[in-house]
Amino acid sequence: MGKGIGPSRNSARNEIFVIAAIVVAAWYCFAQLDVFEYVIEFIHEMETYELDEVVLGILLAGIGGTVYAFRKHRQLKRESAKLEQAEEEVVWMAQHDHLTGLPNRKFLHQLCEHPDFKSCAETGQSHAVLVLDLDGFKSINDLFGHAGGDDLLIQVGDRLNWLMAEQTVLRVGGDEFVIVLRNVDTAQAKSAAREVVKALNEPFQINGNQTEASASVGIAMMPDHAPTLEIARVNADVALYEAKHRSKGSFKMFTKQLGTAMSERSRIEQQLRGAIRDGQLSVHYQPYIDLQTKEIIGFEALARWEQSDGTFIPPSTFIDIAEKSGQILELSELLFRKACKDAYNWPGNRTLSFNLSASQLRDRLMAKRVFRQLEQSGLSPERLELEVTESCFVHDHEAVIATLIDLKNAGVRIALDDFGTGYSSFSRLTKVEFDKIKIDQLFVQECNDSARMKKIVGAIFALSKSLDTTIVAEGIETHEQLQTMQQFGCDIGQGYLFGRPVPAEKALELLAADQIVISDSAG
Ligand code: C2E
Ligand code: CA
Ligand code: CA
Questions:
Q1: Which residues of 185-218 are buried (b: 16+ CB within 10 A; e: fewer)?
Q2: Most buried by CB count within 10 Å: which residue of 35, 74, 230, 301?
Q3: Nearest residue CA, atom 4 of ligand 1?
Q4: For residue 134, what are the domain limits?
Q5: Whether residue 327 sits in one domain with residue 422
Q6: Residue 213 lies in a domain
Q7: What's the Cα-to-Cα distance from 35 to each of 30, 31, 46, 57, rounded to whole Å?
Q8: Is the CB of 314 under 6 A from ligand 1?
Q9: What's the gap in Å between 418 CA and the centre of ligand 1?
Q10: Which atom of ligand 1 is nearest to the CA of 302?
């Protein structure tokens, strides 16, 4: 970038200096050596030989050359200033974001090299890094198009710049901003984060429409949490992840414990790659029971990851990691293949219930993947039920609904899992005709202890009956809970009272016995 400009400009400038120096030196020497008198005398003499015009011409050419050299010098000076300005503009553009005009990622890299942030451990100065990410920016893009999304980013940039006028505000990625606060302590950094969250909670105007947005913020201090700006930024990211996880529109200060938890996550992430590759993941099956006949009507496939020491990493941990690290598709394909193969051997029309996570449903090829696996295993689509949670509908819900409709049209059944624990659920019920609603174990387990909860559960049953949807109660552990669910007219149950998740061979043994033996307790 502008590499050839500097040397050529310098050599032109040097040439001018040399010419000017020679001219000045020559005139000085001529004056010192009385050359001009000799020249005048010479011209007089030449007059006699009529050569004076030639000599005069030579002299005038010299003067002309000098004037030309000066003019050329001025012209080059102007060009050089223009080039310098262009060069500065190129550098500015490379270090700034064209949309918001804020410094960008490249600028941040350079800032990381600044002595203030390289040596704050020695100088004892305390600085902070705030990493900020807009919550639900994708839905704004979906709603207002990319131009609307850009408009929001510009407004966010303006608000941050205005709010943090004395500090460095950068846009380092799509909806990711970084604020570097110099010479602040922990309390000041927290108060700045609070202000930022508050300012971005105020409504925005996009295309003449008022819209809400919010941001989550992660903070890390230098040198308390990190010796350099580079590491502080990574730690602020860890804190941001935690803030987003807890509640949108909040901020979180980095802690050493958070750092340890994050290292543990990345360790599991690495191990998971190996486990998927080496086929260490297995599927266990937990029965679904018809609460009238006590027969097993099917099984839910649940992922299991056994460590070499015989302990299990819970799916709630590794499924989330697989989703965030982009391994969920591979992992799920592997498990689904196994599950379809096992289910094919179950006698009768027992169903296989398989869990799909949010990112899988956003995959536009999802329905095709399912059909291909069904075809390969020979399992008919009518024997498959896919369990999805309300969180699947938060982003890109049009694509998710299209996928679910494709699957339903092919005969696959769709169950809404963990009903009542997620986002506003009722609008979802109008978009997709769920075949089953699975109420979360929280409702089942608290129903007998709280009259209020009992009323809520009663309302869920009434709603599902009016929608003609089957209700499944999950997490039934006691006879008392079973009785309550039966009183509500619940169709299907699942829980430790009927059986825990078991390996494929054990599931086949359960099916060989006609009826499930209900244990006295779930222990
Ligand atoms: P989920 O889909 O809600 O699965 C039911 C969970 O409740 C299972 O936990 C099951 O073992 C547990 N459970 C069933 N009955 C009882 C009971 O009576 N008492 C108690 N305390 N728990 C009971 P698990 O196997 O640990 O799975 C946890 C979550 O991990 C699942 O919740 C599901 O969201 C996810 N998951 C498991 N396997 C997969 C998978 O293959 N793919 C995806 N995307 N998610 C999976
Ligand atoms: Ca489930
Ligand atoms: Ca559930």
A1: eeeebbebbeebbeebeeebebeeeeeebebbbb
A2: 301
A3: 302
A4: 105-254
A5: yes
A6: yes
A7: 5, 6, 16, 17
A8: yes
A9: 10
A10: 38
Ligand 1, atom 46, residue with closest C-alpha:
355
Are 326 and 184 part of one and the same domain?
A: no
* pLDDT mean values, one per 10 residues, the chain (523 residues): 45 65 76 77 74 73 82 88 88 93 95 86 88 89 90 97 95 95 96 97 92 94 93 95 90 96 92 93 97 94 93 93 93 97 95 94 91 97 95 77 93 92 64 90 92 92 89 96 95 96 96 73 56
To test the ligand 1 pocket, which listed residue (355, 440, 485) has its Cβ within 8 A of the most ligand atoms? 355
Q: Please, are residues 265 and 318 in contact by the beta-carbon 8 Å criterion?
A: no
Asked if residue 296 and residue 154 are part of one domain, the reply reads no
The count of structural domains within the chain is: 3
Shortest-distance Cα residue to atom 12 of ligand 1: 475
pTM of the model: 0.71
Residues 123 and 149 in one domain: yes
Tell me, using a 6 A CB cutoff, whether residue 385 lines ligand 1.
Answer: no
Give yes or no: residues 434 and 492 share one domain.
yes
**Residue 291, token pair as written in the block:** 């609460």
Domain CATH number, residue 390: 3.20.20.450
